[in-house]
Every structure is written in structure tokens, then in C-alpha cells.
Amino acid sequence: MSYDMPEATPSLSDELKLALGEQNFGIKYYRILDGSEFRAEVGLLDDPQRSITVAVTENGWEVVGVQPVTRYPTLDDLLRNTSQSYAQREQEILMSKLQELADQENAGEE
């Protein structure tokens, strides 16, 4: 008899680090804040002086200090709705990947 072990769910701290690490294309930098393993400062591409503080909770992602609080299911969603430059860069990357797939498909038909 075998038992399936439930998959380990990442901690919020791990989720913060993993999600931020995947965003290097659309942010200038990130820094986990001292004293809070669930918050980070994120430098946005829109303005060299602009940064936001994001937090991950069991209920999603939010920008700290903004009222009313809006929670997003993913960091991608939060950044897409907060930074026009992030949304534009994400769209450019997606279109580039789709073009690569189309080119590969066309090359295979020849």
C-alpha cells in the first residue's frame, strides 16, 4: 500500500522571494525589507525615483500604504495594474515569444 504525500506549499516568505525573482524583466530592483519577511521594496521602471512596497499575505498581494487596499492573486497582476511600464514590457515579451513560436511552426512547414 502506498500513500501519496501532499505537496509542500511554499511559505509566504518563499513565495515573496520566488515571485520577485521572476520579475527581473519588468522591475529595476527589489529588496526584502528588514524585519518583515513578507514585504519588499520594488523599484518600478516608470520613474527612476519611484518604488512601492508590496506585501504577500494569505489573501494575495497588495501595495502597502495604499487605500483602499486592493488585493491581487499574483505579483504579476499587482505589477501590471500598478506600473504601465511593467505591463508594456510584459506584453512585448509575450508578443516576442508568440512570434518565435509562429516562426518555428512556419519553418517546420517548409
Key traits:
110 residues, alpha+beta, four-stranded antiparallel β-sheet, 4 strands, 40% helix
Give structural notes.
This protein has three helices and four strands, in the order αββββαα. The model has no long low-confidence stretch (mean pLDDT about 90). It has helices spanning about 10-20, 75-80, 85-110, and strands at about 25-30, 40-45, 50-55, 60-65. Strand 3 and strand 4 form a beta hairpin. It is elongated and about 60 Å long. The longest helix is centred in the last third of the chain and has 26 residues, at about 85-110. The chain has a four-stranded antiparallel β-sheet with strand order 1-2-3-4. Helix 2 crosses helix 3. The protein has about 110 residues and is α+β, with helices and mostly antiparallel strands. About 15% of the residues are buried.
Q: Termini, distance in Å?
A: 52 Å
User: Looking at the structure, what is the overall shape?
Assistant: elongated
SS-derived structural category? alpha+beta
Number of helices: 3
Give the strand order, joined by hyphens, for the main sheet: 1-2-3-4
User: What is the H-and-E element order?
Assistant: HEEEEHH
Annotation, overall tally of beta strands: 4
Helix share of residues?
Answer: 40-55%
How confident overall, as mean pLDDT? 88
Q: What is Rg?
A: 18 Å
Sheet with most strands: 4 strands, antiparallel
- Uncertain parts: none
Q: How large a portion of the residues is in β-strands, by DSSP E?
A: 15-25%
